[in-house]
Amino acid sequence: EKASAAARSDAPVFIVGETGTGKELLAKAIHIKSDRGNQPFIAVNCAAIPKELMESELFGHKKGAFTGAVRDHDGLFVAANRGTIFLDEIGEMPKELQVKLLRVLQENRVRPVGHSTEVSVDTRVIAASNRTIEELKNIYLREDLFFRLAVVVIELPPLRERREDIPLLTEHFIRKLNQKYSRNIRGVSEGVLTSIYQYDFPGNIRELENLLEGIIAVSPPDKQTIVEKDLKAHLLWQEKKASEHMLLSLDKLEKFALEQALRESQGNKSKAAEILGISRDTLYRKLKQFGIE
């Protein structure tokens, strides 16, 4: 809901979450659904740019401004003009540069290194970090910059806290990877789904995608289903100690099986019941139990 609201506005957005939780995917989705969706989306990893080059990368420079500046450079804010710039790991930005970023946000103007004049920009800013909000506000960011960026704050929970998303994410990645590797994999077995529900995914969504890619990339062209033996070389197994958590996972597995059967049968409940090996009465009772239309 917050992401949808953010897409309808032009306010700065701050996305907070562990590494691999899909911060850039969410930022891009907000951009695509916004009025700027047809304009550039430029992602910048602030932790990957040497500190001495960050100002030039973001705001541009004039030829001769420093050693190696052999030509004028517009900078990424100008490149993203009328679109969106995504500043990932913004907590790694030097404090002295944060002052200049704050000025850009306030005045919508950048001054390239070595230039005496400023350039107007109309660039939306979405920032992100794997630090906590308290760490960002008290340690890594200037307080005034934090509050200027944090107009809309979206906290992405780790995948282990939203296991109900695993089936849909799995389907999404399989479709994406089928296209990439020219495969026709239709899904995963019940045993695979049980296994990945029990795994904590410390690398979050990125680890799930990498897991599936590692399997699909080496799968034979006629393979249709990912089965348990495909996982063994790719997944680090973890034993669950909490039986309560296991029961919750089984509930979610049952709901997923119902939804999957309805998709396979294109909404035909008689066929869905047949796929699941249950009666129509049981199917209707289960649909009501899980609130599935």
The CATH topology annotation of the largest domain reads as Rossmann fold
Overall structural class, as computed from helix and strand content, comes to alpha/beta
Number of strands: 9
Could you name the CATH homologous superfamily of the largest domain? P-loop containing nucleotide triphosphate hydrolases
Beta-strand residue fraction: 5-15%
Q: CATH top level of the largest domain?
A: Alpha Beta
Q: Runs with pLDDT <50, length 5+?
A: 237-249
Biggest sheet, in brief?
5 strands, parallel
Brief rundown of the structure:
This protein has 14 helices and 9 strands. It is α/β, with parallel strands linked by helices and 293 residues long. It starts with a helix and ends with a helix.
Fold and architecture overview:
The chain folds into two domains: 155 residues, P-loop containing nucleotide triphosphate hydrolases (Rossmann fold); 131 residues, Helicase, Ruva Protein, domain 3 (Orthogonal Bundle). The chain is 49% helix and 12% strand. The strands form three sheets. Strands 2-3-6-1-7 form a five-stranded parallel sheet. The longest helix has 22 residues. It is elongated, with a radius of gyration of 24 Å. About 4% of the residues have low confidence.
Describe the structure using short key phrases.
single chain; 293 residues; alpha/beta; 2 domains; two-stranded antiparallel ribbon; 14 helices; 49% helix; 12% strand; elongated
